[in-house]
Amino acid sequence: MNIEKLEVGRSFKNYKELCAEMGWEVKASVGTKNAQFKELARYCHFTKIGHRITITEVYDEPQEKEDGRGKSEGSRRNSTIYGELVQLLILDLLASSPLNYITISRSKLMLKTSIVNGNYTWCGQHPKKLADYTNIEVAIVYDFFNTSRSSLKGVIETALKHLQDKRIIMFDTVTKVPLRDTKFHRLATPKEKDVIMLIEKSVLDELGYETFSQVRFSKDWITYKNKVKFALHDETNIDYHYQAYEIVANKKYSEQEAKNILDYLLKETEKEEIKDELNYKVQNNMGNNAEKRQEYGFVTSGKRHRGNEHYAENIKELIRLMISQSADNIVPHIMSDDELDEDQMEAIDSIFI
Questions:
Q1: Among candidates 86, 152, 81, which has minimal Cα distance to 121?
Q2: 3-state SS track over 165-218
């Protein structure tokens, strides 16, 4: 490697130009290319946005090679595979806000950054219907959403924490409520939070669960949600409640460092390239993890479905339907007419335009 070519701020317009400067052979396989980028990462920190590679830091001494053993499936890859892409797309959302401030749910943030497609949230609320539609074992559908929700939450929050650590943003997790029979969403008041907690604790006890996380990944999730919603209707003017991120951008940053990062986002084509690259990486990583779970997961107590010979194949089909940006809108096919009102159908259709 011609490490003398590595300079902070230097950009290479694509992989071939990088190879020419580094003295590398241009490779066709994704695996070999990734190995080259992994070796490059020992000598410098770089961003890869669309096809362009930019050096942001050159290390005094090469870092040791990492084999990744002993690290969790998700944490090993999140910052290196998704990090800069998610951060850039979050910053782009903030840049489009005149107030340098947004409140947004995690599911909507994943949709806006092209981590998932419009099927993901809707179908995730009705896993049994999705299982019937796809003819995939319901335990595998639950497995898909349980593993993906955990890993994708990590992707989003890692990006937010990195930006906050650099004091580019500050963020908090807040509770929002839509008022009944309106489209107005606002922050929950302290009194409303008290009522929500009392109702949720009561329903947890009724269904025999100790924690929210237990019921969140159980067969009783839909029952839990409905019971909480009905109780809220009886006692408040709240339709339902959800968690959202309240994100505030550093105004001075937008003047000083926007040129270093957000210049890449000025052209719509470049933004779409970033989204396409991120979405591809999410799909590829989730598919690889499914293959590993199939290979090793069948011995895990309570997860016998991972020993199914079609497990990884089924997960990849769910990835195609729920994650890929080229997927068709399947929500109307798994939901009955009386479960979707006109506004909901319009919102779903707009996602797939």
A1: 152
A2: HCCCEEEEEEEEEEECCCCCEEECCHHHHHHHHHHHHHHHHHHCCCCHHHHHCC
As given in the structure block, the two tokens for residue 144 are 């898909």
Q: What percent of the chain has pLDDT over 90?
A: 25
Average pLDDT over residues 31-46: 83
Does position 163 have pLDDT exceeding 80, yes or no?
yes
**Cα 204 to Cα 9: distance, rounded to the nearest angstrom:** 54
pLDDT per position as a tens digit, 226-275: 899 899 988 888 888 889 999 998 877 655 555 555 554 445 556 777 78
Distance CA 163, CA 324 (A): 26
Backbone angles phi, psi at 16, to 5 degrees: -65, -40
Q: Which of 341, 321, 350 is nearest to 119 (CA)?
A: 321
Per-residue pLDDT at 349 = 45
By the 8 A CB rule, do 284 and 116 touch?
no
pLDDT, residue 195, reads 94
Helix 138-165 with 83-95: angle, nearest 10 deg: 70
- Residues 341, 346, 348, 349: what is their CA dihedral angle, to the nearest 10 degrees? 140
Distance (Å, whole) CA 265 – CA 108: 20
CA–CA distance, 131 with 350 (Å, rounded to integer): 25
pLDDT interval class at 306 (50, 70, 90):
confident
Evaluate if pTM is beyond 0.85.
Answer: no
Q: Which of 149, 155, 150, 165 is nearest to 77 (CA)?
A: 155
**CB 131 within 8 Å of CB 141:** yes
DSSP state of 51: T
Q: Cα separation of 252 and 258, whole Å?
A: 9
Measure CA 14 to chain center: 26
- Classify the C-alpha dihedral 47-53-58-62 as positive or negative: positive
Burial code (b: 16+ CB inside 10 Å, e: under 16) for 222-259 equals eebeebbbebbeeebebeebeebbebbbbeebbeeebe
Q: What pLDDT is stored for residue 66 in this prediction? A: 54
